[in-house]
């Protein structure tokens, strides 16, 4: 993390060359650490956090294929649902920030009144706190619905057992 901190400080100073050097060094170390535990699925969530972090650094360094590989490795694990949600938000926010950084560099003479660029700018925005709250409520609601469906399924199995075709019995149960 010290290398990442140095990269951030270099970015704040406007020193792009030093920032790139520190970012690439941080990426190399993070990727090596992630690769060491890539197949150790019992090390969750540490394994996935390392892969997520390496993927973000890969994006920072412009290593898009490597970022994709690392993201796939992240999702290959046995992640708890809350970490999957956080990883997805993190990836979306990172992608949004990168797209916006590119869009912000387009000269105004070209981007002014350009519908496609305006569309991209409106699409790639980080999730706001109030939207995050709505997403969390929606997730809890879906979890409750799944729990209820599981209860109904259990009741049906206990009542009727396993049948190849129990549609007629279910209709009678109404």
Explain this structure to me?
This protein is mostly helical. The chain is built from nine helices and no strands. It has helices at 2-13, 16-36, 46-60, 64-75, 81-104, 108-111, 115-123, 129-160, 167-173. The longest helix has 32 residues, at 129-160. The chain is flat. The mean pLDDT is 77.
Record the SSE blueprint.
Elements: H1 2-13, H2 16-36, H3 46-60, H4 64-75, H5 81-104, H6 108-111, H7 115-123, H8 129-160, H9 167-173
Helix pairs in contact: 1-2, 2-3, 3-4, 3-5, 5-7
Unreliably modeled segments:
none
SS element count, helices: 9
Helix content range of the residues, please? over 70%
Shape: flat
- Percent of sequence in beta strands: under 5%
- Helix/strand structural class: mainly alpha
Give the helices and strands as they follow along the chain.
HHHHHHHHH
Q: How does the major sheet shape up?
A: none
The averaged pLDDT comes out at 77
* Radius of gyration based on Cα positions: 23 Å
- Separation of the first and last Cα atoms: 60 Å
Quaternary form:
single chain
Q: How many runs of DSSP E, i.e. beta strands?
A: 0
Name the descriptors:
single chain; 174 residues; mainly alpha; 9 helices; flat
Provide a quick synopsis of the model.
With 174 residues, this protein is mainly alpha-helical. Helix content is 78%, strand content 0%. α1 packs antiparallel against α2, α2 packs antiparallel against α3 and α3 packs parallel to α5.
